[in-house]
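Record minuted for completeness.

…
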Amino acid sequence: MEKLTALIVPALVALSCAAAFLRGRDAYALMCGGARDGLDVLRAVFPPVLAVLVATEGMRACGLLDALTGVLEPVTRFLGIPRELAPLMLVRPLSGSAALALASELIFTHGPDSPVGRCAAVMLGSTETTFYVAAVYFGAAKIKRGRYAIPAALIADFTGFVCAALFARMFSWFNELI
């Protein structure tokens, strides 16, 4: 399988060159044009992505993340979400890599088969990095006002967090029955 995946990119490049040759087009010029377009997208997307990453790291460094975790504790307790997962819920909409680092920490500390570990894994798979995605796609499409996009996406993330906790708990119960 590893050999097959190592061949995919070279095969795609070869197929693209062959298709350009068959159509009488300059494959090198087309690839350079594609790279130029990719750099234009990167130039448009990089500033908002950098802003989201700096904001996330700033929240962690100044202790705001810990303070917000304490504020959210009554809500997470009411919803049946383990307290340890509150930082993950706060960071996930901002940064996927920061959320992955937090989840890895949680799984290492509590174990992969613990309720916290299972719930963290399900939360990562069922939610999105909302602000990162909005920054990238809104920046690339030059959308200035997303009006309802961010609130709708945050509601979807919240629903994903609650359902992740519920389903992780349900699967734990089913696993104990079997």
Notes: Residues 27-62 form the longest helix (36 residues). The radius of gyration is 21 Å. The mean pLDDT is 86. DSSP finds eight helices and no strands in the chain.
